[in-house]
Amino acid sequence: MSSDSRFVDLSNSLESVPVLIEQTSSVLTFPQFQYSPDNVQGPGSTLDPSEVTLPGCSCLSHSCSSESCSCLQTHGQAYDSTHTLLHRTHSGFCSPVFECNALCSCGEACSNRVVQRGLTLKLEVYSTEKRGWGVRTLKSIPKGTFVCEYAGEVISFEEARRRQLAQRAEDNNYIIAVREHAGEGSVTETFVDPARVGNVGRFLNHSCQPNLLMQPVRVHSVVPRLALFAGRSIDAREELTFDYSGGYRNRAPAQRDAGTRSETQRDAGTQSETQRDAGTQSETQRDAGTRRDAGTRSETQRDAGTQSETQRDAGTQSENHGVQRKECHCGAKSCVQFLPLDLSIISGKR
Question: Maximum distance among all alpha carbons in the chain?
Fold first, then answer.
């Protein structure tokens, strides 16, 4: 914890590492929400994210190996021995990640237990120059390192639509939709909203050239955790960002125009897909308009009329459903000028 009395632990000791935030700001109002390190069951959801529903392995070793672990044999190896995320993309789609869980016999030091360990990095929520609240790292982060989750209430499609329709133009939208395609016509949707209950992930700003990538990860439950990993090496005190459209591989502005839906766009009202069939490909596409796993797609869009924790310029009026387009102030050379926009939740079209 910082010895500077201006800073407090935003997580109220719920995280193993304090999440620092300045108590007073002459620019921004201190955020009001309930901090939760993990997803919680919200209105309309029939699944409890805390319920253990996935089978476990019977490994008795210090750390599981693909030669003997049923988890790794079924779902593949996601991390190396240093808990670094491996490259798991095929034909533009990301493979699903399943960690060892509470029913597994392996130890807590198993290399297939990463996201479940929770926050281990020193992060700070701070007031940015143009984009309201943002998050930066206080120490350098190697590529492939787990940074934090995007945790919140897991809600139904109907509740997500109700909340978006009730939003005012000046309100921020935090809802991310994950759509997982596993086989012909098989689509599973998960909607996460950290507006009322959430963690440090709710303060992450959008960038058209982000340094974080989102990967749906399953641990104890079939409900995916939206984990954010370092897509490249990140310097100390650098702002942490991800692409609200769900993408990571940067594309030319012309190819990422705001009207397009990335397989994983996570702009306001956005859907994020993350196919979650165990032996199939789970997609977590997160480049606007791109997909990343062969056969199945995982989308993660956060929705466009929506403002990230603070890219909240009034923007221009979108002709779609009267939604305002929000200007993007990420400053990237490949910036498309507007935050990602997906109207699927508001329009009711799934």
Answer: 59
